[in-house]
Structure formats: C-alpha cells, structure tokens
Amino acid sequence: MFDTRKRGWLRQAAVLGVAALSLAGCGKKEEPAPPAAAAPAPAAAPAPAPAPEPLKIGFAYVGPVGDAGWTFAHDNARKAIEAEFGAKVKTSFVENVPEGPDAERVIRDLASQGNKLIFGTTFGYMEPMLKVAAGAKDVRFEHATGYKSAENMRTYDSRTYEGAYMAGVIAGKMTKSNTLGVVASIPIPEVIRNINSFTLGAQSVNPKVKTKVVWVNKWFDPPKESEAATSLINQGADVLMQNTDSAAVLQTAEKMGKFAFGWDSDMSKFGPGAHLASAVINWAPYYKKATKDVLENTWKSEGVWWGVKEGAIDLVSISDKIPEDTRKKVDEIKEGLKSGAFVIWKGPIKDQSGKEMLAKDAVADDKFLHDVKWYVQGVDGKVPSGS
C-alpha cells in the first residue's frame, strides 16, 4: 500500500522544483560583454625639417689652379673648407681671371649665382670687388692683400715677408758670389717688402750680400719668369728667390746649376737639386675662420694679417745641403716669430741712399710695413715708378 504521507511529500517536492525552475527563468538575463574599444591610431610622425641650403662660396683666381704656387695654395684652402664643413658648404671657382674689367664681370657673376661668400685672391681685384659689393649687400666679400674695405667687404693677407726673411738667412749662408737674385712680379708694397726682407735676412748672416731684381710685371708668366731668372744668373746671382706664381724660376736654377727657393707652395719636386727650401702660405686657417663667421652670423668687416704665429706662413722642405747651424738659426727665428720674441723689421734700417727709415731699436708697425715703397741698403737698382 502506498504511503499517503510519502505521496504528499513527493507532491510537495515537485511543486518546489517547478517553483525553483520558474524563479531561475525569471532571473536577470546576462548581457553580452561590450566589444573592446579600438586602440587609438598612432599620431603621424612630424615631417623632417628640410635640410638648410648649403652656404655657396665662390673664388676668383688670378692664375690656374695648377700653377704650383699662389693659386694652388688658395685652391688647397678651398678644399680644406669642403673637408671641414661638408654638406654645409658648396664651393666653386673661376681661374685665370685677369686683374681689370674681367675681374668685375666674374665677381658680379659669382654673386648673381647665389654665392654669399666670395674670395678675390689677388691685389688687383680690390676696386672691382668694391664696385660689386656696393650693389650686393647680402654677400660677404673677402679681398686678399688689399687695403680698402666696406660694410660687407674685408681684407685678409699673409705675412709673406716672414718667409722671405727666413729664406734670406739661408741664401746669405749658401751664396758663393754674394749676389742674390729676385724675380719680382708687380711693384706694390707687398712685393717690395718681400725683396727687402729677403735681403735683410741674408745680411743678418752675411753683410757682404747684394740683391739684384728683375721685374716681369706679371704674377704668372712662366716664360718671362724663366727669362728673368736666366738674366739674374748671368749677372752673377747664384741663389734666387721669386715673388711670382710658377715654378719656372726654380726649374731654371736647376738647369743652370744654381740654387733657388720655392714660393707660396712647396716646389721641391720641380728642382730637387736647386731647391733650398720653400716659403709657403697656408690659407686654410683663415678660410675656415671666414666660413665659420658667415655660417654663425658673426662676420664683421675687420681685416686680418696672419703669419707664422697663426700658422699661415712657414718655411718647409729645407734641404739637407744647408749647414746644421743655419738650419738651427732658422728654427730659432721661426719659434721667435711664433712667440713674438723675434722681430724682423727692427731699426736701424736704412734705404739705398743711407737715409734712416727706422731708428735704432724702433719696431715697424703694420702701417709702416704697408707703405714700404723703397729698397733697403743692399738692393741694386730702382723701384719702378707707380709702386
């Protein structure tokens, strides 16, 4: 017999189960998770700033870059600028630019091509550069060896007379005839000062020395330079110096069995038997400074005149033929010029007539040196008119 109590309990359990299921069905429905928010797109990288335009630098050369002397030295300094500043600069040059109307045309053309720094590398460019500078105020002009300036044009020079003096010391010791020769270019104070300094250096070790001069009235003319050198040798000169731009003087001395010096650049390879030393110019220190001045906007119209002290002048490739005591003396002079302890133009100094131009113990200032238009005692001949 079925237990009615058990049946009642089962019925109750069934009712409770249905109720539980009903409650479960009436509960809050679970919402699906919202989709994940998309990550923000990365900000676009800023466009790189455009590289600054290089400083364009133009050079006007009076001779060919292969002259082995003056222009070769300037072009080496141009290359030094490129090596120093890389992509910050862009250089160009025009060679064989005569002093005169052509110079103005070339310099004006360099300015019109966008060059903002222009070097004119010879004395005769002074007036043409002044004219162009007056109409190109945004360009900086640099004039070698001149004395006139403007708001946007300055002068620069090297104390070539220091190299000439050291060469003279060697010449005074090496000469057998006591006659020296100089092949000279243009009769301006720069060149006359070098002739005198060469003579003073020679006289400091050999008071018997005389110097003869032949003027060719050109900076670069190898045939004329060779003719002048031959003339000097025929007049008894056995050691030659030059203030011209080619290696012709040294080559002529080599052919004729005499001694000579290189000038502006190391010319030893052109006449190894004749070569005693080379009085060289290093324009690179100044050219780097001028370029830096423009790049940093610190350029000012203030000229400079640099020498051994600043690394602009040196006497190099000194021959083993020169006695050791003379080589030592040259080294002492060089060190004295670097430190300021040695002065070349110190009185008493007299001109050809015996007139005292610099009193005893007086030291020539730059104004005095820039106005030397006369020969010192010991130089034969007359200074050409118009110097």
List the helices and strands and how they pair.
Elements: H1 4-25, E1 55-60, H2 70-85, E2 89-94, H3 101-112, E3 117-120, H4 126-134, E4 140-144, E5 153-158, H5 160-174, E6 179-184, H6 189-203, E7 210-215, H7 222-234, E8 239-242, H8 248-255, E9 259-264, E10 275-281, H9 284-295, E11 304-306, E12 313-316, H10 324-339, E13 349-350, E14 356-358, H11 366-370
Parallel strand pairs: 1-2, 1-3, 3-4, 4-5, 5-11, 6-7, 6-8, 8-9, 9-10
Antiparallel strand pairs: 10-12, 13-14
Helix pairs in contact: 2-9, 3-4, 5-6, 5-10, 7-8
Key words describing this protein structure:
11 helices; Rossmann fold; disordered N terminus; six-stranded mixed sheet; alpha/beta; elongated; 387 residues; six-stranded parallel sheet
Structure summary:
This protein has 387 residues and is of the alpha/beta class. The chain has helices spanning 4-25, 70-85, 101-112, 126-134, 160-174, 189-203, 222-234, 248-255, 284-295, 324-339, 366-370, and strands at residues 55-60, 89-94, 117-120, 140-144, 153-158, 179-184, 210-215, 239-242, 259-264, 275-281, 304-306, 313-316, 349-350, 356-358.
